[in-house]
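Need fresh eyes. Consider my entry:
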Amino acid sequence: MLRRSRVTAPLVSLLASTSLVLAATQACAATPAGDLARPATSAASPSGASTAVRAATRADAESVLAISIDGMSVASIRRLGKKKLPNLYRFMRAGASTLNARTEREMTVTLPNHTGMVTGRRIDAATGGHGVTWNDDRPTPSTVQAAAGHDVASVFSAVDAAGGSTALFAAKTKFSLWQRSWPDAIDRTTIDLDNNRLVTSLIADLPTDRDFRFLHLSLPDNAGHKHGWMSKPYLKAVRQSDALVGRVVKAVDADPVRRAGTTILLTSDHGGHGPSHDRATVLDNYRIAFMARGSAVGRNVDLYAINATYQDPGTRRTVYGQRRPPVRNGMIANVTLDLLDLPPVEGSEFDVEMDLRLTAP
């Protein structure tokens, strides 16, 4: 997978027995249907001490798959329970999780929060964020970099710089922003509004050697906007998403080698309350799930219980820069890179020390 010729010396031992199969870029785009505590700081490679801590707390993975279920609320997970969401509850039992993670503070909408997931940055460009404040297919700003007013790296560009392969599978056309922003770093982009067909495309791609895949599912958000969060159609959409996650996990586990080398991360961009999710001060909007499973992850553990440097925020919205921050969806990027034994995203802020445990001490 990761190519030796494009990585720095500390990675050579990890990559000695791996190879890269780069797939050609594929486009399958469907037609469109507050108070910030401190600015973000640029990330540097972890110190020797940090590296030692990482070695003791997290094993490496050969591949990471990040799944975001758009608009899935914690209230719906609790309401439906393990009988109606068997795959999500099995996912939690098999790994590390919390149902009290946080979105970006500034906004609880789709594109800004997803861009935070892959850049590891807050939203507000004036304080070091990625600058994506819109949530549609507008042509300008045409890239994340244009929105921020400066270069913005991502998990895609970090993996690509190390010689790895990445892919994006999204159920909304607005995600074409990422392909425009990191065109050379995303080796395959598939955008399909049909979630079932999208998952079929991802499963068909699993035999291809890739270091990172991002899967976006849209069903709960679609139903929430049309019928309201916690309505019967919305809860049905959450159950359908659970079934799709089950298909993905089953496909990963079908091959013993792939199962052993793959870590799956799962979160959401926001929840929802009533007819919308726009108000960033509403608990149902900013409280989300964050889960991980795989051979590099402990079984049936609560993320806050095994991470003394992170604090369960209760019902608080929280600010950036806390001494003991909450788990955030924006940590997806650097958790991924840590699992792949790569440095954090340049300029990122969330989990930049790569100290989030996925296994108990």
About this structure: The longest strand covers residues 63-69. The two ends are 29 Å apart (CA to CA). DSSP finds 14 helices and eight strands in the chain.
